[in-house]
Amino acid sequence: MSVNTKIFRTSTFRLAAIYLLVFALSVAAILGYVYYSTVGLLERQTEETIRAEVKGLADQYRVRGMPGILDVVVRRSIETNGALYSLVGPDGVHIAGNLETMPQVNLADNVWLDFPVIVGKGDSAVEHTAHGYHIELKGEYELLVAHDVQELRQFGDLIRNTLYSALALSLLLGLSGGYLTSRNFLRRVDAITEASHSIMAGDLSRRMPVSGSEDELDRLAGSLNDMLSQIERLMAGMKEVTSNVAHDLKTPLTRMRARIESALRNSSAVEYKSALNQTIDECDGLLQTFNALLSIAQSESGQVRRQLQMLDIHDILIDVAELYEPIADEAGGSLTLEAAPHLTVMGDRQLLAQAMSNLLDNALKYGENEEGKGADISVTAAIDGQDVVITISDQGKGIPEEDRDRVRNRFVRLDESRSKPGNGLGLSLVASVMTLHNGQLHLEGNQPGLRAIMRIPSSTTIPASPSR
Ligand SMILES: Nc1ncnc2c1ncn2[C@@H]1O[C@H](COP(=O)(O)OP(=O)(O)OP(=O)(O)O)[C@@H](O)[C@H]1O
Ligand SMILES: [Mg+2]
Questions:
Q1: Domain check: are 116 and 252 in the same one?
Q2: How far is ligand 1, taken at its centre, from the CA of residue 426, in Å?
Q3: Which of 49, 43, 53 is nearest to 129 (CA)?
Q4: Between 430 and which of 76, 102, 108, 355 could a Cys-Cys bridge form, CB atoms 3.0 to 4.6 Å apart?
């Protein structure tokens, strides 16, 4: 389709055409009305005057005969008010009146006619148009009463010409305006289409053009750009995860393969058994990694957001603490919980419990004090302004300030923690569960140790009272 045909198919051009039609009709109606109430009115008044004069003269003829009408025609012919008279006898001879020759047209009785008259004498003589009424009197006399309507006709022509030029001008301006705005619109749409084609071809960093006029196309392009940034971020995250997963699985799989190979070479039943047992352990580790990745993927998918329910953080904390308290005790540490009642949030119970477990697991693993005694963990939960705030604090080594952002990324583990089991996915899951709940994860120093803070917007809805 050529650019020009595309322009005529744009909604902008169609809208411009509709406006143009309405505008042209209004211009025609207004000027038509002006014409009717000026030129039309003057024409009607002239005809009325002529008709009254003809009637008066015919009456004179009927009552006073030829001398009567002659008298009036002669008298009126002298007046210079633009009226023209011609009284003609039976043989076509001019009897009286300031119009000496009858117009050279076929004259019937009771007809209106337009005819040319010569006005002025000698060099200044010009032809004007006259409009008059012709009747036949008894005795084969003829009477023509007319008026010089040259100026009136010129005025009429002027108004008619104005009407036509106004219509032509509005059509021209409207069409070219519609063409230009549509072309501009189409150019921007084409630029957006072109950008989207190059994005589809793989250039994910490309963005839709924004003109800066903040109109509807700009707003559309803006939200498409936001969407593209989000997609780019997700794609980058996915690439990173894929390479991290590949990297992280390579080591245990290589280990497993080497072990199985050496067991096969030695072919003793005891070694087979131990190799299989170790393989099961490696498999458990791998499954754990996959489960953690799946939980992160689940909390990052929009689907869970639609299933959030009203929950009491207090209840979940009690359940989770119940699981971890014996473990802390056994390791020679302690776990204390101080949770205010009724901490309602909109959330996913399983993911929130998982996030709390991950933080408690970290506190247990990394929260041992200097003497290697088990971790003393303190858990609190309370309302702070509009948020429910949960803190999990230990008194271990803590995380240096410069690493507190980095440790939220997937597979990041600090060097001193390498002796402990783990994949570096725990805090990533907590962070993505917080994002899912419109909340935040803060990591602070606890002097000594680490204080992990989860902040989730609280949700207090008033139960609907039965209306009656
Ligand atoms: N309470 C803490 N005290 C000191 N260091 C911590 C604490 N919590 C986390 N870290 C550091 O942050 C790193 C990342 O923690 P994260 O929970 O993401 O992974 P992980 O515990 O190593 O493994 P996973 O949780 O997947 O089993 C840990 O390896 C550790 O170095
Ligand atoms: Mg952890």
A1: no
A2: 7
A3: 43
A4: 355
Q: Which residue's CA lies nearest to atom 9 of ligand 1? A: 362
Domain around 294: 216-300
Residue 1 pLDDT class (50, 70, 90 cuts): low
Q: For residues 128 and 25, state if they share a domain.
A: yes
What mean pLDDT comes out for the span 232-238? Answer: 85
Same-domain check for residues 317 and 416: yes
Tell me, in angstroms, the distance from the centre of ligand 1 to residue 105's CA. 115
pLDDT at 3 (0 to 100):
65
From the CA of 395, how far away is ligand 2's center (Å)? 16
Q: How many other CB atoms are found less than 10 A from the CB of residue 360? A: 26
Sheet holding 387-393, edge to edge: 334-339, 376-384, 387-393, 450-457, 440-445
Residue 3 included in any domain: no
User: Residues near ligand 1 with C-beta < 6 Å?
Assistant: 292, 358, 362-363, 366-367, 394, 396-399, 407, 412-414, 417, 422-428, 450
Ligand nearest to the CA of 414: 1
Average pLDDT over residues 437-458: 94
Does some domain include residue 289? yes
Same domain for 361 and 275, yes or no, is no
